[in-house]
Design a protein that fits this description.
alpha/beta, TIGR03885 family FMN-dependent LLM class oxidoreductase, Luciferase-like_sf, oxidoreductase, F420-G6PD/mer
Amino acid sequence: MKIGYHASHEQFPPGELLDLAAHAHEAGFDAMMCSDHFHPWSRAQGHSGHAWTWLGAAMARVDTSFGVVNSPVGRYHPTVIAQAAATLASMFPGRFWIAVGSGEAINETITGAEWPSKDARNRRLLEAVEVMRALWRGETVNHAGEFRVAHAQLFTRPDTPPRVYVAALSPETAAWGAGWADGLITVSQPMDKLKPIVEAFRENGGDGKPVQLQVKLSYAKTEEDALRGAHEQWRTNVVEPSLTQDVSTPQAYEALGEQVTPEQVAEAVNVSADPARHVQWLREYAALGVEALQLHNVNRWQREFIDAFAREVIPKVR
């Protein structure tokens, strides 16, 4: 099992994030991932570096596996994402994967296009994956459906195409993606909600396919700092997805997060200054049989987190 570092483009400028990824790898983290956003979730987070630009620099500097969570259709066109993924997979064989989701309004509506229903977004996502895989096989693609493709062919392709994970936050999405995805990535939450997602994936065609878990945590030198940092940076992200999937600006997310208490954040994020408590949490997640735990320390004290976990947590979880 790998233990990775989640590089949060919403919270740090890309140059600093590049240094943090290198520091994490030197300390003992053996995988990396990031998410592809146009906006942060709040102005307190404050950044929105371009994930694909950063990935090229990061993978050249840090010799480990990298993945990105991306909506390949919306503000992007699937042919563009297919080309970007093929380029990274060609330069860094076996080191790049992509997780695909149906997108969020905060990112995808910037072009002024209509924001589709969830069912329509799922339809276009599956079409996008099929188009990307056809391009990676070297086919000339013409497509007319939720989007159009005309006479597209990729001339630079990796020997082995990147794995495509489905990004799922519910059992329904996990079950839907199990048949066509190469693996599942989901986000940590209470075990009574997390296990049904993993089980739905494995019981509907995903058995034997890899599962990755992005773990939301807040570690700091004191309990007060850990809770305060999580609340300051991540309270906009613990609102129910049903309330946020159509929200299109950071300011609107902030309004939803105004009533979120620190205690409510701690229900969604593993908040503790005690490394032993984090070891316990991570061992429980590892028992699900995951391929990787991708750790996202949601507060701003990244180097302290990296160093403490390299010394006191990672060796006891592996």
